[in-house]
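so my prof wants the structure for this chain in the tokens format not the other one, which i didnt know existed until like an hour ago. anyway here's the sequence
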Amino acid sequence: MIEVWAPRVDRVRLRRPALEDVDLSLHDGGWWRVDVALDDGDEYGFVLDDADTARPDPRSRRQPRGVHDLSAVFDPGAHEWRDASWTGRPLAGGVIYELHIGTFTTEGTLDAAIGRLDHLVDLGVTFVEVLPVNAFNGVHNWGYDGVLWYAVHEVYGGPAAYQRFVDACHARGLAVIQDVVHNHLGPSGNYLPEFGPYLRDAERNTWGSSIDLDEPEVRRYIVDNALMWLRDHHVDGLRLDAVHALKDSSEKHILQEIAEEVDALSAHLGRPLTLIAESDLNDARLVTAREASGYGLTAQWDDDYHHALHVALTAETTGYYADFAPLSALAKVATRGFFHDGTWSSFRGREHGHPIDPRIPTSRLVTFGQDHDQIGNRAAGDRLSQSLDEGGLAIAAVLTVLTPFTPMLFMGEEWAASTPWQFFTSHPEPELGRATAEGRIAEFAAMGWDRSVVPDPQDPETFLRSKLDWEERQGGRHARIHALYRSLIALRARIPALTDPSFASLDASADARGVFRLRRGGLEIIANFAQSPARVETDADLDVLLDTHHRTTLVRGPRGGTLEVPERAAVVLG
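here's what i got, hopefully its the right format
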């Protein structure tokens, strides 16, 4: 049976290569159906009304020749899975590694990424978070311009390669989180509105028309997509992109609807399934249990932690960084989760956010020192490694990995990769490509940036520059930073206090010298952001567990200890 939801048209025909078109019949609710059998790999599309060109299936699993061409049948059950013994991983206590398939390896494919998974196992991370792989127009892209959410980008290897990748991750003990975008559709290849009211034309968000969440079939389209990744591709969790752009006034929010159905699937499969929201709202309702009137998601990203850490490391205070200028901002986010928890946001020009109930586990916030957005949305796509000294990079590592929350790394961060990660596109339409490039350059020029330092996103070299250079891991500060990340992740796994999800166990302070102190469960992390050594008083019974400079001195006295912390260094005591 072939079916498609298309309430906006009066006629639908099934098109297959070298065969006559076949008319579908209209059924209740705007669904069109025809009793035709297609085999794995068969190509097909739908011709709407009196058009000449076929459109891809809105639920297409594969697009062999891109998003403007025919779809192809993909049998998700054909793969011989080898992960029968895989029982999944809970997010609490885990470490996430964010990567982009196209730039993670030279080849830029899912199969090539498999060849680098042992590096992640050796590093000690437990979750691999993959930037969007849904089908988009062009060859390379961040993935957030997807237009066919059920298909895997063919250049990456398509859905069969995706299943091989997930299987390989599970064989190595790595859980997989897939980044999905349900808040907008990309600018090219977006044919869904020809079929039905997927979009609200009168309401827009940052990226285009809003998704019409008043339409039940559109909601079903989103929920079914979430379940597909988890069920058919054995994925362990989803990162839900920019959920603040999901405008939903329904009695039951779409996020709660997704969470309820994912929880039901988790119970059936017998393994934990994780939902992580990216949200700009600073509202813990997303991760509050449903019995406490929340949505019941597993976790949400916490940009405030990034902002506070970034300002402490770089002293950048432009734009939204301005409110995070005092080091006390880092102490606040380290103990309360959000900096803006009802406070005035100068960037937004209003009060923003809500306090987090301290009974909520700290593991429900995902924090990071770098991620794809905070690097790629800088004018030149520069990483911390391109501006910080080795001491600063070491402090960043300590406070990223030993965060009180769930830590996330961005690919290459673990060896201070020298390659940038820039904004790149490959729109084949000249006008769209030109508009994208000119808009990007003009945006940063308006903020005072020299136009010459803003890379052209349509230039293939922008994409190629963003690929990791795996050979550089072996020497100098790259090797030292890599060793530090490995030691920190191992330390986090070894000491229970470092994964204790209790807000009550946290205490932090910051002083005018640039010394930040975080205490949790009998451990203390001290970071000296200053360019000069700092002497601090501490408990006499604590030992140095980790020292980023290997020259911190601890002198014990009858009433306590005195610690001499070098400039731009971090120490862990326990």
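also thought this was worth mentioning. The first helix runs from residue 101 to 104.
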